[in-house]
Design a protein that fits this description.
The protein is mainly beta and 148 residues long. The chain has a single domain (25-141), classed as Roll (Pnp Oxidase, Chain A), CATH 2.30.110.20. 5% of the residues lie in helices and 47% in strands. It contains one helix and ten strands. The strands form two sheets. Strands 1, 2, 3, 6, 7, 8, 9 and 10 form an eight-stranded antiparallel beta sheet that branches. A two-stranded antiparallel sheet has the order 4-5. The protein is globular and about 65 Å long. The model has no long low-confidence stretch (mean pLDDT 89).
Length: 148
């Protein structure tokens, strides 16, 4: 049996519309969960039916050093006045210890839901960080095709 080493959680990049957007320190929230309708059938007392309704995708939160290029800020600002958010495809790419891509999660039609700037303190030695929370309409693995 082949020995499989665990993958490092710290080797990942974030691509927005095919462009790698700097070094992110953290990615949280990759997930999905079925919403269910609970139906209590008359005369059936030993269980409750749980019928699938729709898939619910968690928001994804990305953390990194402050973006001095302003690209993230500009993306967050789009739609503020007219309500037309700029949806973009975002990929979270995981690499193995040798730097080879091993997994890619593609967030479909993502847009900024929240942005949080750094905490600034005169006595701090921490790096300034910003967080970006993304809403999206689905996750696909690389190679999957969308079926509607």
């Amino acid at each position: 049996m082949a020995h499989i080493d665990p993958l490092p959680a710290f080797r990942f990049h974030v691509e927005i519309e095919g462009i790698i957007e700097g070094a992110f320190l953290e990615c949280k929230g990759l997930g999905m969960k079925w919403k269910v309708y609970k139906y209590k059938e008359g005369g059936v007392n030993n269980y409750v039916h749980q019928l699938p309704e729709r898939m619910d995708y968690a928001n994804v939160t990305l953390t990194r050093g402050v973006d001095l290029s302003g690209m993230i800020w500009a993306w967050c600002q789009q739609g503020v006045l007219d309500g037309r958010v700029d949806r973009r495809n975002v990929s979270i790419i995981l690499f193995d210890v040798t730097g080879n891509e091993v997994q890619r999660w593609n967030l479909i039609d993502a847009y900024p839901l929240a942005w949080k700037g750094p905490t600034l303190k005169t006595n701090s030695k921490n790096v300034v960080l910003e967080t970006l929370q993304l809403a999206h309409r689905g996750i696909m693995l690389d190679g999957e095709t969308e079926s509607e």
